[in-house]
Amino acid sequence: MNKKIFNIVLFIFCLIFGVIIVLGYEFVFNVISNFIRINLNIKESLYKPMTYISMGVIYTGFLFYFFVFFILSWFSSMIFNYIVREMRKQQILPANIKTKKKINFLNIYDDIKEIFNILIRLFFEVKQDKDKFSKVLELHLDPNVKKEIEKRNINEIYIGNKTKTGTILFSDLRGFTYVSEFYSPDEVVMILNEYLTESTKIINKYNGRVNKYIGDAILAVFEEAPKYADYMDQDKAILASLDMQVKFQLLLKKWREKINPLLKIGLGIGLSRGQFLAGNIGSENRMEYTVIGDTVNFASRLCSIAKDGEIIISDDIYKTMENLLVVDILEPVEIKGKTGKYNIYSVKTRKMLV
After folding, report:
1. Rounded to an integer, what distance in angstroms lies between the CA atom of residue 12 and that of residue 5?
2. Which end of the chain, N or C, is surrounded by fewer C-beta atoms within 10 Å?
């Protein structure tokens, strides 16, 4: 309703109210005056002042009543209906919600209460969706990436690239292609899921994190330990690798008992340490948070060299861990995409610290 109509309605209301006051003034004055004279034991000189005071109270209350229940209620109803319409346009409220047409504070209160209940329900629905989405993110994203995304605004999802230092772990199943071809899909999925689940638990246990699963391979990152930390990232990566090999043998025993006693499948692991780039890689329509660089490629090549049960490490890792490791020194190898030969080592065990 526009201002012109509002002014007309207000003028008519004031006119009617003024007519009521004028026409009813003498009658109301006589009623109050007689009531005071008959029922109150006061001096005659006080009759008229008391009557005027009573008239003022009555007319003020009458004016207030009409103002609240007509003008103010009508004005509040206009504001409330406007808010409801806008909330419907913005799809905050359902499109089919209706408000009462009577101009009354009680009706507005009922409408507000109903809308408040709707908003409460919507709030819990949104919260449930957020919690569900958060759990999905935990399953599909690196925990650090999840935390970074949650801190950002809706238009700041992109995560910039960073150069980091740490140890890259690549693991890959030996003979899995044969298993995929000659075993049932349920058996293949069971083997893969149990291997990935247990390996991920071990990697997380040693302060690493899985960056991605590549079929039956795992790419994990052990970032450089924070300043003053009492561990080295390469040491944690080696401990995780040793535990993964032990756990894999236990799983293999279980699979042979459950699936086939002749099941042949193994695990090879490669470790490399150095700098790598972590960030968003992909197209404009789809991006993936991953790690790339020479260190990552080197770890992948070492993993491909590793035989069943082997953990192959680079020369850089061996030099910093030499006093803590029992290794087999392997023949220097050529690495695809790199020049020269590189010293590599097969980790047998890690010495206990005394």
Report:
1. 11
2. C
Same domain, yes or no: 64 and 179: no
In terms of pTM, does the model score above 0.90? no
List of residues 6+ apart from 202 with CB closer than 8 A? 240, 243, 244, 247
Evaluate whether 93 touches 118 at the Cβ level (below 8 Å): yes
Q: Which residue is it, tokens 């109509």?
A: 5
Structurally, the chain folds into a number of domains equal to 2
What is the amino acid identity at position 268? G
**Are residues 205 and 93 both part of a single domain?**
no
Condensed to tens digits (0 to 9), the pLDDT of residues 240-272 reads: 999 999 999 999 999 999 999 999 999 999 999
Contact criterion met (CB below 8 Å) for 271 and 314 = yes
What is the model's pLDDT at position 127?
76
Contact present, 222 and 234 (Cβ < 8 Å): yes
Nearest residue to 347 via CA among 300, 312, 316, 297: 312
Q: Which among 265, 245, 247 has a CA at the least distance from the CA of 256? A: 265
**Residue 65 and residue 198 in one domain:** no
Question: Which residues on adjacent β-strands are paired with residue 165?
Answer: 275
End-to-end CA distance of the chain: 86
